[in-house]
Amino acid sequence: MSVLPFKLSGFYPVHLLTFLTLIVFSCDRSKPASPQAKLRFESIIPNPVSTSMSGNMFTLTDDTRIVAGAGNGVDQVAKFLAGKLRPATGFELPVLNEESSGKDAVILSLADDKELGEEGYELVVSDDQIKITANSAVGLFWGAQTLRLLLPDEIEEKKVVANTAWEVATGTIRDYPRFEWRGSMLDVARHFFGVEDIKHFIDLISLYKINILHLHLSDDQGWRIEIKSWPDLTEIGGRTQVGGGDGGYYTQEQYAEIVGYAARHFITVVPEIDMPGHINAALVSYKELNPGPSINREPASARPDRPEAGEVYTGTEVGFSTLDVKKEVTFRFINDVLRELAAITPGPYLHIGGDEAAVTKKADYIAFVNRFKDIVKANGKKMIGWEEIAQGDLDSTITVQHWHSQQYARMAADKGARLIFSPAEKVYLDMQYDSTTKLGLHWAAYIEVDSSYMWDPATRVPGVDASLILGVEAPLWSETLVTMNDIEFLLFPRLPGVAETGWSPREKRDWETYKARLANQSRRWNIMGINFYKSPKVPWAY
Ligand code: ACM
Questions:
Q1: Cα(315) to centroid of ligand 1, in Å?
Q2: Atom from ligand 1 closest to the CA of residue 386
Q3: Which of 311, 356, 507, 512 does the annotation list as catalytic?
Q4: Contact 535/521 with Cβ under 8 angstroms?
Q5: I need a surface site. Which of 189, 236, 317, 453 has the fewest CB within 10 A?
Q6: Residue 475 pLDDT > 90
C-alpha cells in the first residue's frame, strides 16, 4: 500500500503541500531514543520473554490520559498506574473509559492472546501512545509495573520533579511468567512487623512481579493472628518476641486489610501456622495444649536456653516444642484455628508448617500431617507444608516447600505432590552476604548476589519432574531483623534475582547480563529510599 497522498504520475502542488506538512508533523512527533531510555528498556527485571526497540521515544506530558478499556479490573489497574505516575510528574493523568485509541494516551485493554496466558502482557510503546494489552487485569498490572521501570528513575519520587522529560523508548515487549508461584515469605513471629510495614513490603516485592506473600504467623516466640475462639493465643502468645521486646499481632480486621492491599497488587496471601513443632507460643497461651510427660522434652536444666513448658520463649533455638497427637483438645485447637484462618483468607492455600518437629515422634508426626490434610480440605483450602511433610500421605492437591533435603523433595514428587523451591543456601534471604554482614545468620551459607541468582529450579533436585514445580519462594526469617531498614538490606539486591528466577525463561537468565541490569536499578532504589547492600559483585551505576 502506498502512503503517498498523490500518484507520482499526477503531481498536484496542493498534494505536495499536504505531504510536506505530514513529514514535518511526523518529524516533530518522533524523537530518537536517548541512551538512558534505551538503557532502561534493556535493564528490565525480571527479564521479559521478548523485547525489541524501534528507536524513538514516547513522552508522558500534562496532556497524557490513561485510558481503561472495558473489562473486569481494568479500571483498578489504570487507577493504580495513575497513582504511581502522578506524584513525581505532577500531571493530572485522568483515567478515562473511552473506546478511543487516541494519541497522548496510555491505553490498557483486554485482549485474547493465548501465548500470554493468565499473567502475561504485551506493551507497545509508539511515538504518541503506549498500549498495554493482556488477557486479564493481572497481566495489565504486570505490564504497568514494567512501564514504571521504563520511565526515568525519578518517577518514584513522592513529590513533583521539575525539568524531567518523562521519556520511554519506543518498542514492543511481550512477556509472561515461567512459574505461577513467585513468592516472598516474611517471618512476623520472631519479630513482629505491623500493617504499614507489610504494605511497604508488598510495594517492594510487587515492583518485581512477586505474586505470593507467605506470612509466617506463628512460631515458638510469638503468635501473630487473632483467633477469636482462642483469644489467649494473641493475648499471651503474642505479647513478646525474640530478645524480649514487645511483640504484637494482627486483629482479623488488620489481617483483612493486609489481604486487601495485597489483592490490589495481585498478590495472594498464604498464611502459615507452624505445627506440630515451632508451637511454644500456643503452649504458653493454653496449658492444656502442652504434651504429657510421655513426650520427649529435654529438661530446661539441660538446656538453659530453652524454656520450661508454659514459659514464653525469646531465644532463637528451634525444635524443642510439639503438640500432642494423643490429646483431642489438640485437634479442637487445630480445627478452630484453621477454620477461622480459612474464613479470613480468600486465597486457596493454608500453610501448616510441619518443619523441624524434632521432639514429635515420627509416627505421631505422620498422623499429624494426615489429619492436617483432612482439616485443610474440609475448610475448602489446599495444604502447603515444609518439605518434612513428604513423610505423610500426600496427593496432587498438596504442595511441599523444599528448603533443605533433596530426599524429601524427591519423596514429595514421587507421591505426586507439587513443589515450591526455597533452597536455603540460595534464597533464604536472612542469610548473610559474607562474613562481614552484620544482620542475618549463616547456618545455611553466606549468600552473595551472584550465588543467590545462579541456580535453577528445574535442575535443583535431580529426579523431580519439571511439571511438578510450582515455582520459587524466598523466605526471610526475622531472628535478627527488627526494622524495615533491616528487612530491606537483606531483600535488596537479592530479591529481584529470585523474582527473575521465577518469572524469566531459562534462556533469558544469565549472571553476566543480569548483573548489568541489576546495576541500573540502584539509582531508583536510592530515590525510593531502599536500604540495599552494595554488593562488590555488581558494577553499580550509582
Ligand atoms: C525451615 O527453615 N525450618 C523451614
A1: 16
A2: 4
A3: 356
A4: no
A5: 317
A6: yes
Instruction: Sort strands 129-134 and 121-125 into parallel, antiparallel or unpaired.
Output: antiparallel
Nearest to 46 by CA among 173, 230, 168, 164: 173
CA 235 to CA 248: how far, in whole Å?
A: 9
Name the residue among 81, 62, 85 with its Cα closest to residue 152.
Answer: 85
Which residue has the CA at smallest separation from atom 2 of ligand 1? 403
Answer yes or no: 356 catalytic. Answer: yes
**Residue 56 burial by Cβ neighbours in a 10 Å radius (0-12, 13-18, 19+):** buried
Identity of the amino acid at 487: I
* In the predicted structure, residue 268 carries a pLDDT above the cut 80: yes
Q: Which residue has the cell 515420627?
A: 362
SS3 sequence, 426-452?
HHCCCECCCCCCCCCECCCCCCCHHHH
Each residue of 348-402: pLDDT tens digit?
999 999 999 999 999 999 999 999 999 999 999 999 999 999 999 999 999 999 9
Ligand 1 pocket residue status of 355, Cβ below 6 Å = yes
**How many A from CA of 316 to the centre of ligand 1?**
13
How long a stretch of residues is the chain? 542
Distance separating alpha carbons of residues 221 and 136, to the nearest angstrom: 41
pLDDT digits (tens, 9 = 90+) for 28-42: 568 999 999 999 999
Q: What pLDDT does 6 receive? A: 40
Which conformational region is residue 54 in: left (phi greater than 0), alpha (psi within -120 to 50 degrees), or beta? alpha
Under 8 Å between Cβ of 29 and 127: yes
356 lines ligand 1 (CB under 6 A): yes
CA distance 336 to 229: 7
Under DSSP, the state recorded for 279 is: -
Nearest CA to ligand 1 atom 3: 355
Each residue of 477-519: pLDDT tens digit?
A: 999 999 999 999 999 999 999 999 999 999 999 999 999 999 9
More confident residue, 9 or 488: 488
How far apart, in Å, are the Cα atoms of 30 and each of 59, 128, 129, 196?
10, 8, 12, 43
Cβ of 176 closer than 6 Å to ligand 1, yes or no, is: no
The per-residue pLDDT for 311 is 82
Which burial class, exposed, middle or buried, applies to 189 when counting CB atoms under 10 A from its CB (0-12, 13-18, 19+)?
buried
Cell of 506: 531459562
CB 532 within 8 A of CB 488: yes
Q: How far is the CA of 403 from the centre of ligand 1 (A)?
A: 7
Cell match 517492594: residue?
A: 204
For ligand 1, say whether the CB of 428 is within 6 Å of any of its atoms.
Answer: no
**CA 161 vs CA 104, 149, 324: distances in Å:** 20, 17, 60
| % helix, strand, coil for the chain, step of 5 | 40, 20, 45
Q: Tell me the sheet residues that pair with 87.
A: none
Rounded to whole angstroms, the Cα distance separating 384 from 160 reads 45
